[in-house]
Design brief:
The complex is a heterodimer of chains A (245) and B (294). Chain A has 245 residues and is an all-alpha fold. Chain A is built from 12 helices and no strands. Chain A is globular and about 55 Å long. A 6-stranded mixed sheet of chain B has the order 6-7-8-3-9-10, sandwiched between helices. A 4-stranded antiparallel sheet of chain B has the order 2-1-4-5. Classes of the chains: A mainly alpha (245), B alpha/beta (294).
């Protein structure tokens, strides 16, 4: 187990090294999810701004999960490092975890800054921060599986870039993650609740005391995120091949 | 000692493309075994199956006594692969690549640093250790990929066109390195399009054509199949309008005498050349090329 964690750590570091050594790129990637927050801070009230900041943290995790597809694609089809690592004692699980964590490592500075801003903006409990991170991590796991399925099955570099970008709009910018759910027309709200990022954002905002939702909706949110991660894990296990069929 | 054994191996891809059919051979410890064939002949498919990266459809293959399909985990710690068209990460240095591959493969930091320096010195990369891969020539990048595979000190090394893009000196340094490895007991399977490379390196070779075995044996046996192991090139007679020389492969002393007599009679220049592996290769797979062209 220790050797597997070590493998994953070094695979993640190797994948993240170019970004970690380029501070400009690191700032851009790390703050990507937080750009809309600036506009909301300028043009909306403080309650909306706080919600957008929580939403941005949730989306940072989501995007790093989704964009694991690019690492998977490039390591398999472009660099061919996956072939080199298959022919070694590295396990597929270490490889998958390593590539997923590399994105997370790069995004962590942005998350840290956002959490500090939230803590400075009002009273927040440690449990609130912890539950926000757990919710985000659960969504991240589900989207890592999506990213792996995309990266492992796409043989076209443009698609490996464009599919996660389109999905990031559908999962991040359209649903009520940055903005409150009640800003949507009543008819659109049930549709928004079909999207996993909505559930994660609702739970995170709830645990930060920014919105109130019934306990049944909290339970549904957790069940949805768990089910989503399990379903995506099943799909990825069927589609993302370590050894080609 | 038999290191690789392949029996009746076949591969049909999920889309229905038949890449390999009924291929059988074995590789002994310490050998360099070359896989030759035209583009799309099935060389990479065969190499990837043996390197446990691709599942065969029929037949059996084992490496170091372990079945590639049922027991790949027992094989993987003892092998390394240089994939076709692998590229380094352009924003990292050669030192980063090799060090991290040592670490990923389970070496301690001290072992990894030591091994990295050794492999880089062996492959002439040490002086380039801190450059970005984007600043390296194509040949140095290819050497870097080979170095990344070498860190494992593998018992069996699979190389898919490893010297493509290397200059003549770079190719020779790789050949020297491969010979050194086999001297230490490693076994090597490599695919190449450079027939001079196969001629120099191969202890045994397999020529695959359209997924099937077209030839299996030594380089000398392959050349022997072309006749007496020599070619006679008869230049066109002056003023006959023809520009293409005749290339003949006499199979007996009588045939040679007849060619010489004809050359003297027609006042044509005659050159004797030893048959090369390229001649043998063209002869072995030439039949299928002619069929395709008709």
């Amino acid at each position: 187990m220790k050797s597997r964690i070590r493998e994953a750590l070094y695979i993640g570091l190797f994948d993240a090294l170019p970004l970690l050594r380029d501070p400009m790129l690191l700032v851009v990637i790390s703050l990507f999810s937080f750009l809309p927050v600036i506009f909301i801070f300028v043009f909306a009230d403080q309650r909306s701004a706080m919600q957008s900041l929580v939403g941005a943290i949730v989306l940072t995790f989501s995007f790093t999960g989704l964009f694991a597809s690019q690492s998977v694609y490039f390591n398999k089809q472009w660099f061919r490092f996956q072939d080199m690592l298959v022919a070694s004692k590295v396990s597929p699980a270490s490889y998958a975890v390593g590539l997923s964590v590399s994105g997370l490592v790069v995004a962590l500075p942005g998350v840290a800054v956002a959490l500090i801003l939230l803590l400075l903006s009002g009273p927040t409990t440690a449990a609130g921060v912890l539950l926000l991170l757990i919710t985000s991590l659960l969504l991240w796991i589900g989207l890592v599986f999506v990213g792996f399925a995309i990266g492992a099955t796409t043989k076209n570099a443009r698609r490996a870039n464009s599919i996660p970008q389109v999905l990031s709009i559908a999962l991040g910018f359209l649903p009520p993650v940055y903005y409150p759910l009640d800003r949507l027309p009543a008819i659109a709200q049930p549709i928004a609740m079909l999207i996993p990022t909505t559930h994660a954002a609702q739970l995170a905002k709830y645990y930060f005391g920014l919105i109130t939702i019934p306990l049944s909706q909290v339970a549904i949110g957790w069940a949805y995120l768990l089910g989503f991660a399990a379903l995506m894990g099943f799909i990825a296990s069927r589609r993302a091949h370590w050894v080609d069929p | 000692m038999e290191v690789v054994r392949v029996e009746g191996l076949g591969k049909t891809y999920p889309g229905g493309t038949k890449a390999l059919e009924d291929v059988s051979f074995s590789i002994q410890k310490g050998e360099i075994f070359c896989l030759l064939g035209r583009n799309g002949a099935g060389k990479t498919t065969l190499l990837r199956i043996l390197a446990t990266q691709l599942k065969p459809t029929v037949g059996r293959a084992s490496v170091l006594g372990h079945d590639v399909l049922t027991d790949p985990q027992a094989i993987r710690p003892h092998i390394a692969v240089v994939p076709q068209e692998a590229r380094p990460q352009m924003l990292l240095s050669p030192y980063d690549h090799i060090l991290y591959f040592c670490l990923i493969r389970g070496q301690s930091r001290a072992q990894a640093r030591e091994r990295t320096q050794k492999v880089m010195e062996d492959l002439g990369l040490w002086e380039h250790r801190d450059k970005l891969a984007s600043d390296l020539s194509g040949g140095l990048r290819q050497r870097l990929i080979i170095a990344m595979a070498m860190v494992a000190d593998p018992e069996v090394l699979f190389l898919d066109e490893p010297t493509i893009g290397l200059d003549p000196l770079g190719r020779r340094s790789v050949w020297h390195m491969l010979r050194e490895l086999t001297r230490k007991g490693a076994t090597i399977l490599l695919t190449t399009h450079y027939l001079d490379e196969a001629e120099i390196l191969a202890d045994h070779l397999l020529i695959v054509d359209k997924g099937r075995t077209a030839f299996l044996g030594t380089v000398e046996e392959a050349k022997g199949d072309t006749g007496l192991g020599m070619r006679v090139i008869v230049e066109p007679a002056a003023g006959n309008g023809s520009t293409a020389p005749e290339v003949l492969e006499p199979r007996s002393a009588e045939e040679i005498l007849a060619i010489v007599e004809r050359g003297l009679r027609e006042k044509r220049k005659i050159t004797f050349k030893p048959a090369s592996l390229e001649d043998a290769f063209i002869k072995i797979v030439g039949g299928s090329i002619e069929v395709e062209n008709t």
